């Protein structure tokens, strides 16, 4: 559900820019905040707020990778696999996380807690390998620090210790 | 071309050939003019350059980093272009190879085969074999994007012509690009169809077989088709079309660019709604009512019978007992002969056709007959477009595109309509007035203008008397509209006064709604008072309904006018009177269906004899005493006059249906049976006669019409003769 | 150590806050600019300083500003903070740690260019950077540094922080404008250039985040002072993002013209190759630039010298590759990036990056053919210079330069279906080090 408040914020954004259309990306961010990913309803709400067609908004939304096209886990782990991280062993970091979380890259755990993605360079090259959890950086990772991170996230989620 | 003009041209050399073109021309177009083909996919002449497909490479001397794309490079004085160097050929071959990576090899079952740019260019410019030995991308085979259009994403080369048509030309943004990079595909909003009356154009501009028409799919192979340059018969815009036929059937209409009329587009109705032409229900022999039943008869029987009955009725009741209802969809020549038959052969002025309510033959203020004073192209030059009780999207679709073109050039659109219209979304202002009060909205604007003391308004006194008479009604209307809407109407009136150019349009048939009787005259007054007449990008007038609605008026299918709006001393009965006056005993109907305009659908019982010329057994034809099988627009020659008075030729595209005759042939025969000798051997003979009599057609010949027609106006023609 | 300019005070605690930034001299340059200079004077000053764009192309900044079309359309400034070139991580640090330096640069630049609406386009993934910049902008508004009549002058400026949403191509200036206008990030046709027809059709300046963050220092210190750093044609300092297989990766601000070897080996900076291995290759300016061989390690880090050595200074992302790495795997990884980030508008880039990735993948995984190597070179030839925007060209840089220098590694993959680097490792039976070689199977 897109709240009335969110719709109001979208309309305000549309008047903030020299051209209403410019508000489409910030509005999509709002829609995603509300629903976790971009739903048909989210597209419709944005289209209405900015007076665009739904297809038009969808076309913009699908161009940008941060607008998720399907539901994501509560903790979205994006591991950078671009060249600088690659030279610092990010691939084994990904494999390790895959094993630890029991999912493959691009998947979400059955309990909906974690989504594990690999992403392109996140501007953490000189502190590689790096990942983001819900947008926040964790850098210079080793298997041990990655494990500690997951432990901490588990605690935040109230997950029992895994066997 | 004058000397002066010539100096402005830019000179360049393409493959050693000197070329001169106007400044701003793209290298691609300059090459085309020189007869040099440069392959293109993303570029389309009606859309701004995109430069995306990277097919149109050329090498230009002194330009950095060869090759350049010719579709994005404007010409420059002294430019030296090479279109066939090794670099160019390698680059084109490279692009084709890229495009073919994922393109399926299903040409044998592809509708586009034979007219596919990918097929053609691969043959001429492409690699001989493939170096790609990996898996091609796969998508579900054709999926419908609407009821009319199928999308095969595997065949799509992502040139974006279709989606750019949707965003830049039809502006309905229904078909879009989804995802990006190698995952990009064409698509619609989730769960929504590409519902646009213009969607068919995408099947035409798609350079490959990715978008195809569901009606045309697998119907024919392009090389089996016969093409005829003609005009669409669907609405009053008169879009130029290519009629594609195969063995006595029309399979599709394709656009045939005429910048002045259609700008290269065709709506879905024009493109696909011609079933009546191919219908197995088409009438193939004359029918005579015998013992209450319509039974087959020979032409001789039928015509003899008609002549006899008409003479009897004329003798018994006088010529005034005979009336004729003509067509808005038959040719000028046929309309002309129809009124001539009634007036000269049968002696009755009771001739009319179904049309809007216009006071008198000409507008009192301007002295002009009722038609748009602006050209279609003027719409695109307007700064303000005011649509009153009209919805071109539904009724004159291709004009809607012209309005959108104006919009992209900065025009403002104002809509006064009781209903929702497609353009509302893009309009500067939409005033949704109660049904039948669009006319009052115009009066409110006129009142505002007359109150404007500072403006010196032409013809103000004539209008003032009229508006004062309506004072009370106008005040009542203002109350109904409410303060806000009234103020908006008043500001609109003021805005029109200072507009660079305003085009004010209303639907012909909206004048028939109760409350809108004065719409035509008042709209005309609005344009006169605001000075939006006789200047570029400005004008006023009715949007007519059918392909030859204006032609019918021009030809004198009116009770009070001879051809060319020449006044008649004693007017005949008008359309409603013909259908309501018991004095009328015999009725001739050509290509019209008046039964539809009668509440119970029954022609008056007082009619003793009804003759109908028709393609199919319509409601009216079913009640006739004699039915004569006629030919459709696709089976005959003739001229038609569109909404902005372009006289254009329709041409025989099909072998005429055996047993049926063109309406003009029927009329010539009928005249003969009535004892008159008409010697017209073809529509061109009739056009010559029209040209002699009608100032709007003065001097016009069949040859003049050529492929693009002529916009003929009274003043111009007067000057020309 | 040379005096630092852009990274000066970066580590002062609380420098992200307005008051601390001001205590350390922040916004004095702005006050000086408004007080002492006419807009055109600032443009001249920047020209004198020799500042060149830090976004990649290295275009002289003052000259760019002076190209703005003179017409009655509103002008705009876009700060390009869409940092996403693999190997580059400097703008992020500036935004996260000292956002006011950027905001100050934006205000001064807007004043110089007579702009009244500026946008800071922050890469979507950089959540913290976006937050910090937004907060700095809010603080600046509250302190009268933004909005109407800035610091009592008659100059007014509105700044909108706009967040991207995941598209490398939006770092390309015209795609960035499309994105700001709410469209898919397709690059636009040039000409017209942004300075003539840019955002919303108005004349527009687009500068990189680091470029703009350098402006206050130039106002404060003077054009000649700034020009005294660096080389004849590459003046000033810039942040080099050192990454890959070095001991001490990091962001190091150095005057232009310092040799690559200093950055890589000096104890103050890179401190040498990771695990003391041999240097195999250097990518000097982000993954879009040509790979340099180790014999180029003494090349000075300035625009001209790096170009003469056969590559580009680019975004300042210096990526170091040691002999533990298989070049095929590394190039595959970079090519995947361009495949995923190609906007898809033009055929050669969209299809070419896809095809090249497929071929590299099969080579890497041992299913390739010898002819694939020449095929790759030919695909690069059909792509480079044929694509709509430079992203397509960039996708070929590592492949062509990689094959030229390491052809035998590619052929080894094709012949033996496995990697030359790991086979050599096995042959030599070296003890495995803490960091196992990557790109092996
Ligand atoms: C594919 C591509 C990606 C780019 N990405 C960035 C970027 O992330 N940040 C940036 O500042 N410039 C980027 N640029 C360069 C910009 O187009 C532009 O030149 C630069 O922002 C101008 O600023 P400057 O003159 O201050 O360097 C990119 C260029 C291309 C072709
Ligand atoms: S080179 Fe072409 S497909 Fe690639 S990013 Fe540029 S325009 Fe898009
Ligand atoms: S036709 Fe020129 S690039 Fe597509």
Can you tell me the CATH superfamily of the largest domain in chain C? NADH-ubiquinone oxidoreductase 51kDa subunit
Q: What strand order characterises the main sheet of chain C?
A: 3-2-1-4
Straight-line distance between termini of chain A: 37 Å
**Average pLDDT number of chain A:** 96
CATH class of the largest domain in chain A: Alpha Beta
Tell me the fraction of residues in β-strands of chain C, as a range.
Answer: 5-15%
Domain module tally of chain C: 3
Biggest sheet descriptor of chain C: 4 strands, parallel
CATH class of the largest domain in chain C: Alpha Beta
Number of helices of chain C: 17
Backbone structural class of chain C: alpha/beta
Strand % of chain A is: 5-15%
Bound ligand species: flavin mononucleotide, iron/sulfur cluster, FE2/S2 (inorganic) cluster
Under CATH, the homologous superfamily of the largest domain in chain A reads Glutaredoxin
Number of strands of chain C: 8
Task: Give the largest chain-chain interface (CB within 8 Å).
Answer: A-C, 45 and 60 residues
Domain NADH-ubiquinone oxidoreductase 51kDa subunit iron-sulphur binding (chain C): 328-373
Protein name (chain C): NADH-quinone oxidoreductase subunit F
Family (chain C): Belongs to the complex I 51 kDa subunit family.
InterPro entries (chain C): NADH-UbQ_OxRdtase_51kDa_CS, NADH-UbQ_OxRdtase_suF, Nuo51_FMN-bd, Nuo51_FMN-bd_sf, Nuop51_4Fe4S-bd, Nuop51_4Fe4S-bd_sf, Soluble_ligand-bd
Walk me through this protein's architecture.
The complex is a heterotrimer of chains A (163), B (721) and C (441). With 163 residues, chain A is of the alpha+beta class. Chain A has helices at 4-16, 24-35, 40-50, 54-61, 83-86, 90-101, 143-157, and strands spanning 75-80, 107-108, 114-119, 131-133, 136-138. Chain A folds into 2 domains: 4-61, Arc Repressor Mutant, subunit A, CATH 1.10.10; 75-157, Glutaredoxin (3-Layer(aba) Sandwich). Chain A contains 7 helices and 5 strands. In chain A, strand 4 and strand 5 form a beta hairpin. The longest helix of chain A is centred in the last third of the chain and has 15 residues, at 143-157. The radius of gyration of chain A is 18 Å and the shape is elongated. Chain B has 4 domains: 3-99, Ubiquitin-like (UB roll), CATH 3.10.20.740; 107-213, 2-Layer Sandwich (Alpha-Beta Plaits); 287-353 and 549-720, Rossmann fold, CATH 3.40.50.740; 376-543, Dimethylsulfoxide Reductase, domain 2. In chain B, strands 15-14-27-26-25-16-17 form a 7-stranded mixed β-sheet. A 5-stranded mixed β-sheet of chain B has the order 2-1-5-3-4, with helices on both faces. In chain B, strand 16 (322-325), helix 10 (332-345) and strand 17 form a beta-alpha-beta unit. Chain B is globular, with a radius of gyration of 28 Å. The two termini of chain B are 23 Å apart. The model of chain B has no long low-confidence stretch (mean pLDDT 94). The relative contact order of chain C is 0.11. Chain C is built from 17 helices and 8 strands. In chain C, helix 2 (28-36) packs parallel to helix 6 (99-113), helix 2 crosses helix 9 and helix 15 runs antiparallel to helix 16. Chain C is 43% helix and 11% strand. Chain C has helices spanning 18-23, 28-36, 39-49, 61-66, 91-97, 99-113, 127-142, 173-180, 209-221, 223-227, 260-265, 303-308, 327-341, 347-364, 371-383, 390-416, 420-428; strands at residues 76-81, 117-122, 158-163, 204-208, 237-244, 250-255, 279-283, 317-322. In chain C, the strands form 2 sheets. A 4-stranded parallel β-sheet of chain C has the order 3-2-1-4, with helices on both faces. In chain C, strands 6-5-8-7 form a 4-stranded mixed β-sheet, with no helix packed on it. The radius of gyration of chain C is 23 Å and the shape is globular. The chains are: A alpha+beta (163), B alpha/beta (721), C alpha/beta (441). At the A-C interface, helix 2 and helix 5 of A face strand 3, strand 5, strand 8 and helix 13 of C. Bound molecules: flavin mononucleotide, iron/sulfur cluster and FE2/S2 (inorganic) cluster.
């Amino acid at each position: 559900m897109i709240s009335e408040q969110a719709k109001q914020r979208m309309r305000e954004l549309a008047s903030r820019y020299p051209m209403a259309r410019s508000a489409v990306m910030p509005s999509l961010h709002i829609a995603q905040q509300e629903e976790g990913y971009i739903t048909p309803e989210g597209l419709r709400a944005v289209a209405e707020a900015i007076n665009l067609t739904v297809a038009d908004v969808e076309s913009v939304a699908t161009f940008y990778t941060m607008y998720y096209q399907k539901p994501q886990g509560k903790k979205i782990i994006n591991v950078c696999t671009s060249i600088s991280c690659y030279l610092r062993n990010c691939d084994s970091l990904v494999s390790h996380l895959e094993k630890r979380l029991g999912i493959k890259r691009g998947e979400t755990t059955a309990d909906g807690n974690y989504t594990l993605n690999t992403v392109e360079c996140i501007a953490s090259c000189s502190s590689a390998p790096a990942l983001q959890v819900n947008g926040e950086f964790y850098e210079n990772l080793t298997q041990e620090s990655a494990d500690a991170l997951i432990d901490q996230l588990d605690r935040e989620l109230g997950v029992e210790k895994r066997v | 071309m004058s000397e002066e003009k010539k100096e402005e041209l830019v000179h360049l050399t393409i493959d050693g050939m000197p070329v001169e073109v106007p400044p701003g021309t793209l290298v691609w177009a300059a090459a085309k003019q020189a007869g040099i083909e440069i392959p293109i996919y993303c570029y389309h002449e009606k859309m701004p350059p995109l430069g995306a497909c990277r097919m149109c490479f050329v090498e230009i001397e002194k330009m950095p980093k060869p090759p350049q794309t010719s579709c994005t490079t404007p010409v420059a004085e002294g430019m030296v272009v090479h279109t066939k160097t090794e670099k160019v050929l390698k680059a084109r071959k490279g692009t084709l190879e890229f495009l073919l990576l994922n393109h399926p090899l299903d040409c044998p079952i592809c509708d586009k085969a034979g007219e596919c740019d990918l097929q053609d260019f691969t043959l001429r410019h492409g690699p001989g074999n493939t170096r790609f030995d990996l898996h091609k991308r796969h998508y579900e085979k054709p999926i419908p994007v609407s009821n009319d259009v199928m999308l095969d994403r595997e065949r799509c080369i992502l040139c974006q012509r279709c989606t750019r048509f949707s965003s830049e030309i039809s502006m309905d943004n229904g078909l879009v690009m989804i995802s990006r990079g190698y995952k990009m595909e064409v698509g619609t909003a989730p769960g929504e169809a590409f519902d646009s009356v213009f969607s068919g154009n995408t099947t035409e501009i798609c350079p490959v077989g990715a978008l195809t028409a569901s009606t045309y799919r697998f119907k024919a192979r392009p090389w089996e088709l016969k093409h005829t340059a003609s005009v669409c018969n669907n609405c009053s815009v008169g879009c130029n079309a290519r009629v594609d036929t195969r063995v006595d059937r029309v399979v599709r209409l394709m656009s045939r660019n005429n910048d002045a009329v259609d700008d290269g587009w065709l709506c879905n109705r024009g493109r696909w709604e011609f079933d009546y032409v191919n219908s197995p229900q088409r009438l193939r022999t004359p029918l005579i009512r015998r013992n209450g039943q319509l039974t087959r008869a020979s032409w001789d029987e039928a015509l003899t019978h008609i002549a006899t009955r008409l003479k009897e009725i004329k003798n018994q009741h006088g010529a005034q007992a005979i009336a004729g209802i003509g067509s808005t969809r038959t040719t000028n020549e046929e309309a002309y002969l129809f009124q001539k038959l009634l007036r000269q052969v049968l002696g009755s002025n009771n001739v009319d056709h179904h049309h809007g309510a216009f006071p008198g033959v000409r507008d009192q203020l301007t002295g002009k007959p009722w038609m748009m004073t602006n050209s279609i192209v003027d719409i695109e030059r307007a700064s303000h477009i005011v649509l009153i009780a009209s919805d071109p999207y539904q009724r004159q679709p291709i004009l809607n595109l012209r309005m959108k073109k104006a919009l992209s050039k900065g025009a403002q659109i104002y809509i006064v309509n009781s209903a929702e219209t497609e353009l509302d979304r893009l309009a500067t202002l939409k005033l949704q007035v109660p049904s039948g009060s669009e006319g009052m909205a115009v009066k409110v604007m006129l009142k505002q203008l007359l109150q404007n003391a500072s403006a010196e308004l032409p013809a103000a006194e004539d209008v003032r008397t009229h508006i004062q008479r309506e004072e009370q009604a106008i005040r009542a209307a203002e109350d109904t509209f409410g303060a806000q809407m009234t103020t908006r109407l008043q500001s609109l009136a003021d805005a029109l006064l200072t507009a660079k150019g305003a085009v004010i349009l209303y639907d012909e048939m909206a004048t028939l709604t109760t409350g809108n009787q004065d719409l035509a005259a008042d709209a005309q007054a609005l344009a006169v008072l605001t000075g939006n007449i006789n200047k570029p990008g400005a004008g006023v007038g009715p949007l007519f309904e059918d392909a030859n609605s204006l032609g019918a008026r021009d030809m004198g299918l009116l009770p009070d006018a001879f051809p060319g709006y020449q006044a008649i001393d004693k007017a005949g009965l008008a359309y409603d009177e013909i259908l309501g006056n018991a004095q009328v005993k015999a009725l001739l109907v050509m290509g019209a269906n008046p039964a539809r305009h009668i509440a119970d659908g029954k022609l008056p019982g007082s009619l003793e004899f009804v003759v109908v010329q028709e393609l199919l057994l319509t409601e009216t034809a079913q009640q006739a005493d004699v039915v004569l099988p006629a030919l459709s627009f696709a089976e005959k020659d003739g001229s038609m006059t569109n909404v902005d008075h372009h006289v254009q030729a329709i041409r025989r595209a099909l072998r005429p249906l055996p047993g049926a005759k063109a309406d003009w042939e029927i009329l010539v025969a009928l005249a003969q049976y009535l004892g008159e000798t008409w010697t017209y051997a073809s529509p061109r003979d009739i056009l010559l006669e029209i040209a002699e009599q009608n100032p709007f057609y003065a001097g016009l010949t069949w040859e003049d019409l050529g492929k693009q027609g002529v916009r003929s106006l009274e003043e111009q023609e007067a000057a020309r003769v | 150590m040379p005096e630092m300019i852009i990274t000066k005070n970066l580590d002062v605690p609380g420098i992200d806050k307005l008051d601390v930034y001001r205590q350390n001299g922040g916004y004095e340059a702005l006050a000086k600019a408004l007080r002492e200079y006419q807009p055109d004077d600032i443009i001249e000053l920047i020209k004198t300083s020799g500042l060149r764009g830090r976004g990649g192309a290295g275009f002289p900044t003052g000259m760019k500003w002076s190209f703005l079309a003179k017409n009655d359309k509103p002008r705009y400034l876009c700060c390009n903070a869409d940092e996403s070139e693999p190997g580059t991580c400097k703008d992020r640090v500036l935004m996260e740690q000292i956002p006011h330096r950027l905001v100050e640069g934006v205000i001064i630049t807007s004043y110089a260019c007579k702009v009244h609406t500026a946008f800071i386009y922050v890469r979507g993934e950089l959540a913290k950077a976006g937050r910090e910049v937004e907060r700095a902008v809010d603080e600046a508004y509250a302190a009268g540094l933004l909005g109407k009549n800035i610091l009592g002058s008659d100059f007014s400026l509105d700044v909108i922080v706009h967040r991207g949403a995941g598209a490398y191509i939006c770092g390309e200036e015209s795609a960035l404008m499309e994105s700001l206008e709410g469209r898919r990030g397709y690059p636009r046709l040039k000409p017209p250039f942004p300075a003539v027809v840019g955002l919303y059709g108005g004349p527009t300046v687009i500068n990189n985040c680091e470029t703009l963050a350098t402006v206050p220092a130039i106002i404060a210190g003077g054009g000649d002072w700034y020009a005294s750093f660096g080389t004849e044609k590459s003046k000033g300092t810039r942040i080099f993002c050192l990454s890959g297989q070095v001991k001490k990766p990091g962001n190091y601000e150095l005057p232009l013209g310092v040799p690559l070897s200093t950055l890589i080996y000096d104890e103050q900076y890179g401190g040498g190759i990771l695990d003391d291995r041999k240097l195999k290759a250097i990518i000097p300016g982000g993954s879009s630039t040509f790979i340099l061989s180790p014999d180029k390690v003494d090349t000075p880090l300035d625009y001209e010298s790096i170009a003469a050595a056969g590559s580009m200074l680019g975004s300042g992302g210096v990526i170091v590759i040691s002999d533990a790495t298989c070049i095929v795997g590394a190039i595959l990884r970079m090519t995947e990036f361009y495949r995923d980030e190609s906007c898809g508008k033009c055929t050669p880039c969209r299809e070419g990056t896809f095809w090249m990735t497929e071929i590299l993948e099969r080579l890497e995984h041992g299913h390739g053919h010898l002819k694939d190597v020449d095929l790759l070179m030919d695909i690069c030839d059909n792509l480079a210079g044929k694509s709509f925007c430079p992203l397509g060209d960039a996708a070929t840089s590592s492949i062509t330069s990689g094959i030229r220098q390491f052809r035998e590694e590619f052929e080894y993959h094709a012949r033996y279906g496995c990697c030359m680097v790991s086979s050599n490792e096995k042959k030599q039976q070296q003890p495995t080090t803490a960091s196992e070689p990557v790109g092996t199977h």
